[in-house]
Design goal:
alpha/beta; SH3 type barrels; Leucine-rich repeat, LRR (right-handed beta-alpha superhelix); 11-stranded mixed sheet; 26 strands; about 20% helix; elongated
Length: about 525
């Protein structure tokens, strides 16, 4: 690196030996002669002190050993935008050509090269300059004249230090819709609204791992008047504040991998009118509530929310799932890696309970909920808690039924399930017992009634085997995709009666299949 460095070096970003830092001081450090740069490293393990040397405080670090002094020649202050573009996309170096006019020879520097480069730059729409040491936009209007058609731009992990520098780039890209500036350290402008003209088309913004706080997001928000998606992962955010004037067009908000503990913090963003996807994965939330309405009601919060990701939190109680049923538009839920998912021995049981508790859910943990699965889950839920319902005051005679408030708080959907399927009868409730039986091998005959040429097959199957796994076995035997198979069975004790195996996730014992029964296969 050169000994020369920018006159406004303090506050600028640098890279040195592959490590990123911010310049905090420029000057002498006696008794050693010459100029030094005092830097605060992004990785504090790279540093040696907090900006103090021999008892003199030269600058301040957020980490007690995050600082160092380095010589200017070791610091890379970065390059302008177009230099990075040319290097990343391997545009050729200048060439010279000669043209003859009469008796005169004229040398044209890079004539065809410039034309070819301009043609290539004009074609750029989606570009990535990640880790290209971009620090500024360069000469005025150079970007606009060279590559004005960029719509998606990745500037993550560069040397950008101010929103002013970003605005210089963005205002020349009038079609820019998606911008990723993750892993930069960018200082807030004194007047954010003055830069809004540079981001008039910006719809998607990623600020992951930038150390930005939520309050800083709100202060910056006037710059992004039409923003739809905002990604703020891994910024150590702990608290949220309600945005009253800005971010009102947000449809997607990603605040995953932060340190939010109190689920009530989510109320701050609950009234964004267009928010339809909220990603709060990998925080430390243990409970989510919507206290504006009682159990069984519909909350006014998150009125447009269709997708919610709460993976990797500390949710362990079913009360949170009950609360989520208050969201009138919720259709997709991701909730992996919460203690709740380990609350039952069989993971499929947890899935079925969540489906039964959330009336409008269509996708759970990225897997579609089919109509048969929902019907089976709701019927099972109705039977599973039937005895509790009766003990709490429920009755098959609707005029006499008066379940307790405690039961209804724990099972807000139970009454609606009874209205749909009818009250559970005593005979149904006794059928819960097969789940406790020891695993048994059943000798079953497998027939294909619509395929007379297919000979019956006799198989021994464990009664704990799910219908889905039976279909997988038949796929291997019959060479028919499992998704096309429809199974039912005839009991040896009830000749002529055929019972459909409608829930793929249930074991054979759930349907009271016994030795000697016949499984019927159709496709």
């Amino acid at each position: 690196m050169s000994d020369a460095f920018p006159s406004d070096a303090v506050g600028r970003r640098i890279v040195c030996d592959g490590e990123y830092a911010t310049v905090r001081y420029v000057g002498n450090v006696p008794p050693t002669p010459g100029l030094w740069l005092g830097v605060e490293w992004d990785n504090p393990l790279r540093g040696k002190h907090n900006g103090t040397h021999d008892g003199t405080k030269y600058f301040t670090c957020s980490h007690p050993k995050g600082g160092s002094f380095i010589r200017p020649k070791k610091a890379n202050f970065g390059v302008d935008f177009l230099t990075a573009v040319r290097k990343r996309y391997e545009l050729k170096n200048e060439q010279t050509e000669e043209l003859v006019f009469g008796n005169k020879t004229v040398e044209l520097v890079g004539f065809e090269y410039v034309h070819e480069e301009q043609s290539q730059l004009n074609k750029l729409h989606d570009i990535s300059l990640r880790e290209c040491a971009v620090s500024h936009g360069g000469d005025k209007d150079d970007i606009y004249c060279s590559c004005p058609n960029i719509t998606t731009l990745n500037l993550s992990k560069n040397l950008l230090s101010s929103w002013g520098d970003l605005a210089d780039i963005a205002k020349q890209l009038e079609k820019l819709e998606k911008l990723d500036i993750s892993e930069n350290r960018i200082s807030l402008p004194p007047n954010p609204s003055s830069l809004s003209s540079a981001f008039l088309s910006l719809r998607v913004l990623s600020l992951n791992r930038t150390k930005i706080s939520w309050s800083e997001v709100l202060r910056s928000a006037p710059m992004w008047p039409v923003l739809n998606e905002l990604h703020l992962a891994s910024n150590d955010i702990t608290t949220l504040e309600r945005p009253f004037e800005h971010l009102q067009s947000l449809t997607v908000l990603d605040i995953s991998n932060n340190n939010i503990v109190d689920g009530n913090q989510l109320h701050a963003v609950a009234y964004l009118p267009r928010l339809n996807q909220l990603i709060i994965s990998n925080n430390k939330i243990s409970e989510i509530t919507f206290p504006d309405v009682q159990f069984g009601g519909t909350t006014a919060m998150f009125s447009a929310l269709t997708g919610l990701s709460i993976d990797g939190n500390n949710i362990s109680e079913w009360s949170t799932v009950n609360e989520l049923n208050k969201l009138k538009t919720l259709q997709s839920l991701n909730c992996y890696s919460n203690p709740l998912m380990e609350s039952e021995k069989n993971p499929e049981t947890v899935r079925q309970l969540i489906i039964a508790k959330l009336a409008n859910l269509k996708v759970l943990n990225r897997t579609e909920i089919l109509n048969n699965e929902r019907r089976g889950a709701e019927l099972d839920y109705r039977k599973m808690f039937g005895n509790d319902w009766i003990k709490a005051g429920g009755n098959q005679n609707s005029e006499l039924s008066n379940p307790s408030k405690e039961f209804l708080m724990a099972h807000p959907r139970y009454v609606s399930l009874i209205e749909r399927y009818g009250a559970p009868e005593s005979g149904e409730l006794k059928q819960q017992q097969p789940f406790a039986l020891k695993n048994q091998l059943l000798t079953l005959t497998i027939k294909c009634p619509d395929k007379p040429d297919q000979k019956p097959i006799q198989k021994k199957l464990p009664d704990s085997m799910t219908v889905q796994k039976v279909k997988g076995l038949l796929y291997r035997l019959l060479k028919v995709p499992g998704s096309e198979l429809k199974l039912s069975y005839e009991s040896s004790k009830m000749k002529g009666r055929e019972i459909e195996l409608e829930n793929d996730l249930k074991p054979l014992q759930f349907y009271s299949i016994e030795n000697g029964d016949c499984v019927l296969v159709r496709w």
